[in-house]
Amino acid sequence: MTGPEPSFAVEVDQNVHLPAGATEVDAVVTVTATGGPAAAPGDALEVLVVDTSGSMHGEKMRSARQATSAALAELRDGVSFAVISGVGMAVQVYPRDGGTAVADARTRAEANSEVANLRAGGGTAIGSWLSAVGRLADAHPGGLRHALLLTDGQNGEHERVFAAALDGVRGLFTCDCRGVGTDWRVEELRTIAAALLGTVDIVADPADLAADFRAITAAAMGKNTADVALRLWTPRGASVRFVKQVAPTVADLTGRRTESGPQRGDYPLGSWGAESRDYHVGVAVNAGGVGEEMLAGRVQLVRAGSTEVLGQGLVRAVWTDDTSLSSRISQGVAHYTGQAELADAIQEGLAARKAGDEPTATARLGRAVALAHESGNENTARLLSKVVDVLDAPSGTVRLRKKVDDVDEMTLDTRSTRTARFRGAS
Predict the structure, then answer these.
(1) 59-74 vs 209-221: helix axis angle to the nearest 10?
(2) Terminal-residue alpha carbon distance, the chain
(3) Quick one: average pLDDT of 20-36?
């Protein structure tokens, strides 16, 4: 890598004052990465996985070929790459003899020639596709490893087979997932994206695939730091209630902890470019007396598996009998608590709607409307309005629509975890 190294800044937003006897400490940790060039080409791997099952025939297959070519055009010279055709097994179409190629004018042209020959036919075995990417990533340790996965249908593998394949590739690469059309399962791709620290979205119109692939690949090419982790130290007797990413999307990292020392654990954050993300950290501590102060947590940004600290912030607790201090609510904590509830309310409401439970669906989607209105999450409010008739947004009074297009329901579900950034955050 040439040029200055990227720098990380860590800011902590919290109300440090707790009433006597209180044990729960909450803080929003904003991590901002600035500067630094994109990773050296030799340190990056990009794998494009294209569903070529039988259901991808016609316009979807033509658009998928165009989109893959658009992604190939975004690869920087020197980046390692491969293209996989996904059917009932993973078929590597470029390089044909396995392994990876190094991007340049010649290899991009060769890859485009192979992509032009992709045809739809066969089944869908997403676990095997992920395993194939994992094998390629294994041969490129330590660098930025990214995959872009496209599908239009539901996985045909046994649930245990798929789960084992997904577990086998955790930590090997990040993966952005896209579903084209409306015949795929949101929860299936969300599971993959959550496990592999990527994103999931719907591309309802196949004609929009090329622009989406171009943007995703360009973003991957702009990353410069691989395998960043949030390292959280808590004092003896304390416990971690949760660690969640809350912006730009909600993602629960609590169960991803790996122990890294006494009273210390690491939570994977994936790869970074010049960007900012927010995390909500909840810690339970032993209650203190009035006037007592303690360090409730030390948050550090580290390169995964190393001792190199990229940035640090402190989470504090001060016990007081002054209710004017202890009753203040951190605006950032309150905002993101609401955004996490908003995502849950949407997903629970849509699930109830599918199950025919109209009272629960109305109540949960109504709550989502109220939360979106309160937080100023205009994008989510607009998506909700296509699923329910909003009678009064502040109170969450809604009526379920009798007829909802599949694309509107899936778009709301897919984008339910996107949050409105707290205005006080950097």
Answers:
(1) 20
(2) 27
(3) 94
